[in-house]
Write a structure and sequence with these properties.
The structure is a single chain. The protein is 35% helix and 18% strand. The strands form five sheets. It has a seven-stranded antiparallel sheet, covered by helices on one side.
C-alpha cells in the first residue's frame, strides 16, 4: 500500500512507471512511461504499431480516450472478395496504429514531466538491452513459429535466427531510434512525417493499401465512458468499437440476479456470473462495431428494461446457450496507475494475437497490429469491413466509482475475448465481495467458450468444477501453459488516502506502491 501505485504485466515496465511517480510525475506520466517500455520489453503483446485506449480520473471527473485506428481508405468489401474471413496476418490485416497518438494525447492533456524523461526508460531498454522474462520468452518462441516468414519479423525479433531464451539480453536499436523521433516530434513524424512515409512504403512493398494519407487522417478521440450499476458501484467502460459494452451488459444482468447470496467461489454465484457473461458477449458479437455504424445506440443496451429482459433469461439451476438480444428502436498489455494527488489511469494497448500481423517496418522496430481481423466479411453484419471504419476490438480498460461518483478501482484483464469476462470476475471479487486486488488477481479464472462450454484454469478447484458441470456447464481444464487464455490482471484500488495494487504473477506481472 502507498500514496502512489502502478501495476503492469512486466516488471521492467512497472519500474519505468514508478520512476516517473518518484520523480514527481502524474499517474499519466507513469502510465505513458510504462506503456512505452512495454512495447520494448513485452513485444509479444504490443508494439509501436499497436492501438490504445484509456480512462483517466483527473481528480474531479472521468475522461475516456479511444485512440484506435481506422481501416485504410482502400479497404472495400470488394478488396477481400472470395475470402471466408478477413486476413489475420500480414500487411492486409493492418489498420492505422493508434497507440503512439494515445501517448501524446494523454501527455498533452495530463502530463507534467518532459516527454524525453518519460520515454527514457523505454529507449534505454531498447538501446542497451533487457533480459527477456520467462513467460514472454515462451510467447516469443510461439510467435516465431507462426510469424517468422512475415516481412521484417525475423530481422527484428529473431537475432541469430531464433527467439531469445529466458534471461537472454535483447536489444532493439531500430525501436529505440523510432522512439527518439516520436519524442522529438511529439508523435508528428509517426503520422505525418518520415516515420509515416516508412510505414506506407513498407505497406506498398508488400501489396497493401495502407497509405501516408490514411496515417495523416488519424486523430485520437476523447469520448464519454458508458456506465452501469453493479452492487454499490458504477462500472465504466469506453463506448464501441471496443467490447466494453458487452462487459457492462453482463454486469447489469448479473446485478439483477441473486449474486449476493453466496461467496465469490460459490457455485451458484459463479453460475449466475457465467450466464450473465454469455448474454453480454452474445450482444457484443452481434451489435458492436465502429460507433458511427452502430444500428442501436450503446445506451439502449443498458436501460433497466433491456437488462431486466436479458436477466430474465438466466436459469439459476441450468446452463444456457443464449442468443443476442435487440433493443427497442430508439496477445495485449494492460496497466493501471495512481498518484498521490488522486489521479488514476486505466490504460490498454495491443497488437492483437500476440505479435499482431507479424509485419515489421524494416529497421524501425515498428511491429504492426492486425486489428483488421476484427472486421466481418458478412455483408449483413454490422461490422462489415468498409473504408475508414473502425473494427470491433477486444481491448478494453475498466474503471469503477462509488455511487457518489468518487474513484474506487482502475483495472483490466488482458487476453482477447477474456477481457470482458475478466472485468466481471474482478468486479465480482473486489467490489462485490471485498477481496483485495492481489487475491483477486491470484484467483483461478474461467472463460466461456462455444455453447455451454466453460474453460477453467489448471489450478481451478476440482470440487467447484464438478458442481458447475452438474449445472450443465461443459467444463474443460486447460493446460498450465495456457496462461494467456485467461488473461493477466492488473488492479489499483483506492483505499482511504492511499492505494492497494495487485498484478498477476503467473503472467510476469508486477504491482508497485510507495
Amino acid at each position: 500500500m502507498g500514496d502512489s501505485a502502478i501495476a503492469t504485466s512486466q516488471p521492467l515496465a512497472a519500474q519505468a512507471g514508478m520512476a516517473m511517480l518518484i520523480a514527481g510525475g502524474t499517474a499519466v506520466d507513469a502510465a505513458i512511461a510504462a506503456a512505452m517500455a512495454l512495447t520494448v520489453v513485452e513485444p509479444t503483446g504490443c508494439g509501436l504499431g499497436s492501438d490504445g485506449y484509456a480512462m483517466v480520473w483527473d481528480g474531479a471527473r472521468l475522461h475516456g480516450l479511444n485512440a484506435s485506428g481506422r481501416a485504410p481508405a482502400g479497404w472495400t468489401p470488394e478488396r477481400f472478395a472470395g475470402r471466408a474471413q478477413m486476413p489475420q496476418r500480414g500487411w492486409d490485416a493492418v489498420t492505422v496504429p493508434g497507440a503512439v497518438s494515445a501517448w501524446i494525447a494523454l501527455w498533452r492533456r495530463f502530463g507534467t514531466l518532459p516527454l524525453e524523461q518519460i520515454a527514457a526508460p523505454a529507449i534505454r531498454f531498447a538501446e542497451e538491452g533487457f533480459p527477456v522474462s520467462p513467460v514472454i520468452a515462451q510467447l516469443w518462441a510461439n510467435g516465431a513459429a507462426q510469424l517468422g516468414d512475415q516481412p521484417g519479423f525475423a530481422a527484428c525479433f529473431l537475432p541469430g535466427g531464433r527467439a531469445p531464451n529466458a534471461g537472454e539480453r535483447m536489444r532493439l536499436p531500430g525501436h529505440a531510434a523510432t522512439l527518439r523521433r516520436i519524442v522529438e516530434t511529439e508523435g508528428e513524424a509517426f503520422y505525418r512525417g518520415d516515420i509515416a512515409a516508412r510505414i506506407a512504403t513498407a505497406a506498398a512493398a508488400n501489396g497493401a493499401v495502407l497509405s501516408a494519407e490514411d496515417l495523416a487522417e488519424h486523430v485520437p478521440e476523447w469520448v464519454t465512458p458508458l456506465a452501469t450499476r453493479f452492487g454499490d458501484h458504477m462500472l465504466h467502460e469506453l463506448p464501441p468499437n471496443g467490447q466494453g459494452l458487452g462487459a457492462l451488459i453482463a454486469l447489469g444482468v448479473l446485478d439483477r440476479c441473486n449474486w449476493h447470496a453466496g461467496g465469490p467461489d460459490d457455485p451458484a454465484t459463479l453460475h449466475l456470473a457465467i450466464e450473465a457473461v454469455k448474454l453480454g458477449l452474445a450482444d457484443a458479437y452481434a451489435h458492436i462495431t465502429d460507433i458511427g455504424h452502430m444500428r442501436h445506440a450503446p445506451e439502449a443496451f443498458l436501460t433497466p428494461d433491456y437488462l431486466a429482459g436479458r436477466a430474465a433469461l438466466v436459469d439459476p439451476a441450468r446452463a444456457g446457450d443464449p442468443g443476442h438480444g435487440t433493443p427497442a428502436p430508439g496477445g495485449t498489455v494492460y496497466l493501471a496507475a495512481a498518484d498521490r494527488d488522486g489521479r488514476m489511469v486505466s490504460f490498454i494497448q495491443s497488437n492483437f494475437m500476440g505479435f499482431g500481423s507479424g509485419a515489421v517496418v524494416p529497421e524501425a522496430g515498428i511491429s504492426m497490429q492486425n486489428r483488421g481481423a476484427g472486421f466481418s466479411l458478412d455483408p449483413e453484419h454490422v461490422n462489415i469491413v468498409a473504408p475508414r471504419k473502425k473494427p470491433f476490438q477486444t481491448i478494453i480498460p475498466c474503471f469503477a466509482t462509488d455511487l457518489t461518483g468518487q474513484p474506487v478501482l482502475s483495472f483490466g484483464v488482458m487476453g482477447g475475448p477474456m477481457q470482458a469476462q475478466g472485468h466481471l470476475q474482478m468486479a465480482l471479487r473486489v467490489l462485490g465481495f471485498g477481496q483485495n486486488p492481489q487475491a483477486a488477481a491470484d484467483a483461478p479464472r474461467w472463460r466461456v467458450t462455444e455453447g455451454r462450454g466453460l474453460a477453467i484454469e489448471s489450478d481451478f478447484d476440482p470440487v467447484l468444477a464438478e458442481k458447475l458441470a452438474a449445472l450443465g456447464h461443459q467444463v474443460h481444464r486447460e493446460s498450465p501453459d495456457a496462461v494467456f487464455g485467461f488473461g493477466g490482471a492488473q488492479l489499483v484500488l483506492r483505499s482511504g488516502a492511499g492505494y492497494v495494487a495487485g498484478s498477476d504473477p503467473r503472467k510476469d506481472g508486477l504491482a508497485l506502491a510507495f
